[in-house]
Amino acid sequence: MLTAANRGSIKRKFMLAMLATTCAALLVASIAMLALDLRSYQTGWLDDLQSQADILAGANLPALEFGDAQAAAESLAQLEVRQQIVAATILKPDGEPFASYVRKGAAAESPKLPPGARSSVSMGAVRVMKPVTHGGGETLGYVWLTAQYPIGAQMGRHLMILSAVMAGSLLFALLVSSWLQGSVTRPILALTAAANRVISGRDFSLRVEKRSNDEVGILVDAFNTMLSEVGERAQALEQSNATLQREMRERMAAEEALRQLNGTLEERIAERTRDLERAHAQLRQSQKLEAVGQLTGGVAHDFNNVLQVIAGNLQLLQMSFAGNPEAQRRLETAAFAADRGAKLAAQLLAFARRQPLQPMSTNVGRTLRGMDDLLRRALGESIHIETVVAGGLWTTMVDPHQLENVILNLAINARDAMAGSGRLTLELGNAMLDDNYIASEPDVAPGQYVLLAISDTGCGMTPEVMARAFEPFFTTKREGEGTGLGLSMAYGFVKQSNGHIRIYSEVGSGTTIKIYLPRSMQPEVEAANNRAAPIVGGNETILVVEDDAVVQATVVDMLQGLGYRVLKANDGQSALTILRSGIPVDLVFTDVVMPGPVRSVDMARQARQMFPDIAVLFTSGYTQNAIVHGGRLDPGVELISKPYRREDLARKIRQILGSRGPQPALYPAVAQQADIATAASALAAPNHAVALAVPNHASTLAIPKEAAALSVLVVEDNRDARLMLVELLTALGHRVESAGNAEDALALLQERSVDVLLTDITLPGMSGLEMARRAVRAGHQFRRIVFSSGHGASMAEGFEFEYATLPKPFDLTALQTVLAQAATATHVT
């Protein structure tokens, strides 16, 4: 039984234990209470019967004294009202019955008690013996009573009551045990369920809800803590296992790779060697490109300036010798050589990716069709040209004019390779370069491209020639037949346009050059063709900003020959000074590379801030990074590269100023005089180099009648301001001498006399005031001494001679007024 109980659940065990304990406790309590009750019941009956015996003894004392048995019997008959008393007897002292009473239906019994006992209780019967004594203590007799008390009924009642109490107690115990076992077993079952879920699902994040703070609650806390620690350890173990497995896989992979490496070691070494050789070749090519780029950038600017002077003056001479055929022939030969030098410089810049590009969204098919006549004239009739353009051709972002040069150069190379006879095929289509293709071309980005393929039926190239085909100055032609820059120029242009170029060739089978230009998502922009535009001039005012004096003079002559009014400045600061003076300027023509603190780009930006409608045209033989970024001209920038011809310059200027239309080539002298008057205000900043280019007919300027020609000594330490003032005074008809400091001025005055001394106050070394004072003391006589200063008209110290002031900035009217006063004045002393 105990074994079966041990096999049951905790709930059953708990309930059985509770019920057994309750039953045992109730049983023991019931037995004790029953025994106690019976004992109490018996004692009550005994006491009651003794009290009845005492009453009978007192009542029957006289009957015993007088021997009246009848009275005693009547007294005993009164016991009939007591249902429990079944018999009563009055005995004489000797034990003989004196009187007796027996309840009907009861059996008579003889009075008998154990010796020495006065009462007895047995089996539901109570017997009492009471002596009847006299007042003197004499025993007259005895009263014996027998009563039947209902002990069985009493026990039955007690058992019924005990049964009811036990049933209620057991029910209560059952309820209490159910509650107790629930409060104990439910957390245990929850712990068991959580443990099973953790075991099955490996989910250590589960937690059992704590419902009490007793021992069970402590057990729940301990279980949750255990889960947390086990979870952390399990996670750490899993991570450790994962790490171990990964290390094992890596180790196995490494071992496998090592086995494969060992198996293909020689092949990998050879492949790696080839990769290193290709990398070294690319590095050498890149270093060669960079070296050529640095060389080109260093000499292109000065070289192109030299070519500009040569070409510009040759064109001016061609205009001067219009009627001399021999001179024209020689000049054309020299101009052709200058153009060839310019082309070589441009090709070097293209290879070095230094040429300024003006890319636009271009339909290469349209460009190719526009070159048809040009290609046919360049290649001749013996070469058949075939053009194939695929449908749905994409646009590409490219400089169309430079692309035309590339196509023309490649076509000429093909003509030479075909020895003047063969077929040239130009194909256009869309292409996609994927990752597999660019794996061997690290400098090419995958994506969509426009493909231009130029194929010939010429002699082809050997692998050795193909390896060096893009190198500058490399050529297979005889000396004098080529420069070796055609393919290198095409290579540089394509790379600068973010494209890709590839050569496919076999000896005896011809050559195909494929050019990949990146696709543009923008709509096509048709490039303007100004080659056929007429060569016209105008009467607008152009400010030429050029630091090279020879180039500046050549450009000024070209522009004046076209009829333009020309102002000139040697640097950016001087150009800003002229612009701030208020002279109306239509176009600023400036070199990109400019000395001084103000760059040409900054000067152009400030010029547009002052005059939003002013046009700006840049020129340079080498643009550096001023207006070119990423190999492309900045948006909105106009550029004409050096060297340029007079016709190209005229067309470019009219293109920029085209909305105004061509203007008359000549303008009246009055307008020139007004411009000169405005230009004079540029002397406000003597530290800047400014000048005015006066046309040849500037001598017709009107000079006031009262202002006769004077000899003027200009003393100014700023060279550019001094030259401008000398040129201005000369244009007004005066004889001018100049000096850069007071010492040179005094030395010049020792040799000749002048009418007017026009000097700046602030000079290096001796001031203009002290110089004038020493000249007067030395006996030099002047019609007027004029002090010019940018610090105002007043001077604090007095002088012993008369003088005039010309505060900077001054205009032509103020200058003419001072000179007119000098013409009518007597000599100062």
From TrEMBL:
Pfam families: CHASE8, HAMP, HATPase_c, HisKA, Response_reg. It is found in: Membrane. Residues 298-521 form the Histidine kinase domain. The chain crosses the membrane at residues 14-36, 159-180. Residues 227-264 form a coiled coil. SMART domains: HAMP, HATPase_c, HisKA, REC. Signal peptide: none annotated. Gene3D superfamilies: 1.10.287.130, 3.40.50.2300, 6.10.340.10, Histidine kinase-like ATPase, C-terminal domain. GO terms for molecular function: phosphorelay sensor kinase activity. CDD domains: HAMP, HisKA, REC_hyHK_blue-like. Keywords: Coiled coil, Kinase, Membrane, Phosphoprotein, Transferase, Transmembrane, Transmembrane helix. The modification 4-aspartylphosphate is found at residues 591, 760. Residues 182-235 form the HAMP domain. It catalyses: ATP + protein L-histidine = ADP + protein N-phospho-L-histidine. GO terms for cellular component: membrane. Its EC number is 2.7.13.3. Residues 541-657, 711-823 form the Response regulatory domain. This is histidine kinase. It comes from Noviherbaspirillum pedocola. The lineage of its organism: Bacteria, Pseudomonadati, Pseudomonadota, Betaproteobacteria, Burkholderiales.
